[in-house]
Design goal:
Belongs to the dus family. Belongs to the Dus family. DusA subfamily. The chain has 18 helices and 8 strands. The protein is α/β, with parallel strands linked by helices. Helix 5 packs parallel to helix 7 and helix 7 runs parallel beside helix 8.
């Protein structure tokens, strides 16, 4: 985590003050998405919005305690404001990992109580924890006791037959007794048997009214809504009911949506999607790309996150195809990016 993109060194991270300047403003954030919202993706997104809160992929406590910590925690300073999402259910392990988050300079640590996959269920991680409110409260309290940064939670509106508004309300009320103030709510329940994670993001119906009602009943809590959100008109309407919006798949597949975020939600003039020089945005990545290539990455590790930037423009398909076919080569460099831009008419 250095300005020169070198691998993060613990002694530097421990003295980082990047997250000390002001509170996290979660009016707009991007979702934690496995295999997508890695550091390379977040660096690219930060070229599009300076203020949105960016969330890491979910990292399990076991991976941090027993695995290569730098692999999971290293990032570039430009990514702030930045949150680390943890998966786990052992209070002591979560406390230890919350300390890691603080030591590495993250602005927030978030507990995943929403992932529905069989693998995480078997380890008591994710959405299944909505059936264990007392345990979740213990986990959150342990994390709070271990760190000075914000401890937040991301959860579903319910699971399986535990899908009434009252169950969600009581779950949130129990967690709130710990002092937790920020609840990011995916407005679908999770069906833990019979649906894949992908189907769990699409099949259970969205119930935004559950989240709006939650804010009404807990006006002192920060309620962030997530799930099925695709455009700024929708977001603007939602912000009349809740405190913030988290965008997931739309931000990844159509990253240009992020270009309007700073002006719309942070009262800061910025380029709009219509006015953006998207080729210049891609070229702004070149120093970062070259630094990553020098450390053994392939171009594909970075370029794959940019594939949707030009959606709807002439030549966008050729841009995507050229990168998909060439960026994985070990010798691929920024010339491959330039070739892809040239196919769209950028010189």
């Amino acid at each position: 985590m250095t300005q020169e993109y070198a691998p993060a060194q613990p002694e530097h991270i421990l003295t980082s003050t990047a997250n000390d300047s002001k509170p996290v403003n979660r009016r707009f954030s991007t979702a934690p998405m496995m295999d997508w919202s890695d550091s390379n993706c977040r660096y690219f997104w930060r070229q599009l919005t300076k203020h949105a809160v960016l969330y890491s992929e979910m990292v399990t406590t076991g991976a941090l305690i027993h695995g290569n910590r730098e692999r999971f925690l290293a990032y570039d300073d430009v990514e702030h404001p930045l949150a680390l999402q943890l998966g786990g259910s052992n209070p002591a392990d979560l406390a230890q990992c919350a300390r890691f988050a603080q030591d590495w300079g993250y602005d927030e640590v978030n507990l995943n109580v929403g992932c529905p996959s069989d693998r995480v269920q078997n380890n008591m991680i994710g959405a299944c924890l909505m059936g264990h409110g007392d345990l979740v409260a213990d986990c959150i309290k342990s994390m709070q006791d271990a760190t000075d940064i914000d401890v937040t939670i991301k959860h579903r509106i319910g699971i399986d037959d535990l899908d009434t508004y009252e169950h969600m309300r009581d779950f949130v009320g129990k967690i709130a007794t710990t002092g937790c103030k920020t609840f990011i709510v995916h407005a679908r329940k999770a069906i833990l048997q019979g649906l894949s994670p992908k189907e769990n993001r699409e099949v259970p119906p969205l119930k935004y009214d559950f989240v709006y009602r939650l804010k009404q009943e807990f006006p002192d809590l920060e309620i962030i809504i997530n799930g099925g959100i695709t455009n700024h008109d929708q977001i603007t309407e939602m912000l009349t009911h809740v405190d913030g919006v988290m965008l997931g798949r739309e931000a990844y597949h159509n990253p240009a949506v992020l270009l309007d975020v700073d002006a719309r939600y942070y009262n800061e003039g910025s380029i709009s999607e219509e006015d953006a020089d998207k080729a210049a945005l891609i070229r702004s990545l070149y120093p970062y790309i070259e630094a990553q290539l020098s450390k053994g990455a392939t171009l594909h590790h970075i370029s794959r996150h940019t594939l949707g930037l030009f959606n709807g423009q002439p030549g966008a398909r050729m841009y995507r195809r050229h990168l998909s076919e060439n960026a994985h080569r070990k010798d691929a460099g920024i010339e491959v990016m330039e070739q892809a831009l040239a196919l769209m008419g950028y010189n």
